Amino acid sequence: MNDHGAMTVEVCETNETRHLTEYASPELRRRLEALPSGTTVPLTMTRVGVRSNVWRAFELPERRATVSRSADPAELDGPVRPMH
After folding, report:
1. DSSP secondary structure string, the chain?
2. Taking residues 47-75, what's their average pLDDT?
3. How does pLDDT run across 14-33, given as a tens digit for each residue?
4. Which of 72, 53, 55 lies closest to 5 in space, CA to CA?
5. SS3 content of the chain, % helix, strand, coil (to 5)
6. Tag placement on the chain: N or C end, fewer CB within 10 Å?
7. How far apart, in whole angstroms, are the C-alpha atoms of residue 47 and residue 45?
8. What is the pTM of this model?
9. Distance (Å) of CA 70 to CA 13, 53, 83
10. Secondary structure (3-state) at 33
């Protein structure tokens, strides 16, 4: 996570890079910030705006996944790998 609270993540199945800039709660933001770079975790997110690559994180389940994918607005569940 950078000094402005944005985090870059990689969607595991597609190698797509996404930029998290909004978080559902301060607790979620703290949990994501504490993750080591390269950790694979399930994350629920939706796009912020229509044409941007900016995302809002909604949920990080307690369990961590080994293999996963990130969600688009139609499919909200899926893991990502933080790149910080």
Report:
1. --TTS-EEEEETTTTEEEEEEEESSHHHHHHHHHSPTT--EE-EEEESSSSSSEEEEEE--SS--SS----BTTB---EEEE--
2. 67
3. 888 999 999 999 999 999 99
4. 55
5. 10, 35, 50
6. C
7. 7
8. 0.70
9. 8, 13, 14
10. helix
Longest Cα–Cα distance of the chain, Å, equals 31
Q: Looking up tokens 């985090």, which residue turns up?
A: 7
Which tokens hold the place of 16?
A: 């797509």
What is the C-alpha to C-alpha distance for residues 55 and 32, in angstroms, rounded to an integer? 14
Structure tokens at 83: 């790149």
- What is the C-alpha to C-alpha distance for residues 68 and 6, in angstroms, rounded to an integer? 21
| Confidence (pLDDT) at 71 | 41
Report the C-alpha gap between 22 and 29 in whole angstroms.
8
The amino acid present at 70, given as its one-letter code, is: S
Closest CA to 68 of 77, 79, 58, 59: 79
